[in-house]
Amino acid sequence: MELELPATAFELGQLLDVGPGVRVELEGIVPFGERRVPLIKVAAGRDQFEASLRDQGPVADIWVVSEHAAMALYALNWARSGDRFLDTVNQFDGEVLDSERRGSVWDFEIQFESHENLTDFRAACQETGLPIEITRLFNPTRPDAGPWYGLTGPQRTALDRAVEAGYYEIPRQITTKALAAEFGVSDQAMTERLRRAIGNLVTNTIQTAEPPIGRP
């Protein structure tokens, strides 16, 4: 599903309100020790981003996971006092696939394991007064494949970056080794991630389509 949420309506959104000259995206939330930390992509205004976050009390640490040209991927460790929105997403086994700030609003793409979890999430947001606005609900060819046709969050992020960086262009604009360096994984791991991503897309789109009439 895709939804919009005011930046002031959740704790992380308030922390990431670092000024109009900074382009910030939430790439996902990953395990780090016994807690989960957000991965933040900053495409412009890195100095302003770092200075703003280091001045905020709840932020324990930020560090660069990977960088490419002007873009950097940060991990953020902060003392959460209770982010109602992200806690509700986690409560119903949701996964933040992508998110980007657009002015005073954040656009989210979230995947839930089942339609029941999605329904319960919407109900919980309504009950607790979270002002989400759902802009799109996914209905893939295979309902059990999830909103991204069977892609996991890391597969989708890697594939999206590969396309953006020109991996599938002729001549190729980036290597799997360079992509792997951005994500902090090995060349082989990135190659396998892209291979599995393409396999999932084919399985859940082309192979599920009905054959043309008259085809033997």
TrEMBL record:
<keyword id="KW-0805">Transcription regulation</keyword>
<dbReference type="Pfam" id="PF04967">
    <property type="entry name" value="HTH_10"/>
</dbReference>
<keyword id="KW-0804">Transcription</keyword>
<feature type="domain" description="HTH bat-type">
    <location>
        <begin position="151"/>
        <end position="202"/>
    </location>
</feature>
<protein>
    <submittedName>
        <fullName>Bacterio-opsin activator HTH domain-containing protein</fullName>
    </submittedName>
</protein>
<dbReference type="InterPro" id="IPR007050">
    <property type="entry name" value="HTH_bacterioopsin"/>
</dbReference>
